[in-house]
Amino acid sequence: MNRQERRNFIEELRARVKDGKKSAFSYVCSGLKQKENKFNWVGIYVLSGDKLQLDTFEGEKTQHVQIALGDGLCSLAVLKNEIVNEADVKSNSKYLACFPTTRSELVVPVRKNGFAVGEIDIDSDLKNAFDKEDERFVTEIANMLGESFF
Ligand code: SME
User: Fold this and answer.
1) Which pLDDT score, from 0 to 100, does residue 53 have?
2) Does any ligand 1 atom lie closer than 6 A to the CB of residue 123?
3) Read out DSSP for 8-58?
4) Which are the contacts of 13, defined by CB distance < 8 A and separation ≥ 6?
């Protein structure tokens, strides 16, 4: 998506948020996967006790429906309450492999009152797929979800 399409996406999400969590979460996962070529898998994990629980996703099924806090790049993003943008997943020993085709991964925390309560996880089949503009865009989405549904 170009800048304008991304603005439109955010505006549409604002409308979906009013329809409820299910509508908003599926719009984020299916919309992003559909409209961003380099996004090959998009999922939303929710922190539940000491686990990350996969809530909604678009793309292939993953065996990582639950991730113990401490495992994977997904945990790192929540524990550090920071974006994890891994340009080359194969070079990161923390990486928990889901799909053989994944080359890079972006994990953006969803926050409530500043605390990480979930995340948007995006896998790409391209190496070094995600730039600062992607980080800002997905953060804007994550903030809307955090404020509305957690
Ligand atoms: N790769 C993630 C696990 C989730 S899958 O990408 C869907 C990780 O390292 O935590």
Assistant:
1) 98
2) yes
3) HHHHHHHHHHHH-HHHHHHHHHHHHHHH-TT--EEEEEEEETTEEEEEEEE
4) 24, 27, 28, 31, 141, 144
Question: 10: pLDDT confidence band, cut at 50, 70 and 90?
Answer: very high
List the domains of the chain with CATH numbers: 3-149 (3.30.450.40)
Is the Cβ atom of 125 under 6 angstroms away from ligand 1? no
Going by C-alpha positions, the residue among 52, 40, 25 that lies closest to residue 149 is: 25
Residue 119 Cβ inside 6 Å of ligand 1? The answer reads: no
Ligand 1: does its nearest atom lie under 6 Å from the Cβ of 24? no
pTM over 0.90? The answer is yes
Cβ of 43 less than 6 Å from ligand 1: yes
The mean pLDDT of the chain is 97
Distance 14 CA to ligand 1 centre (A): 27
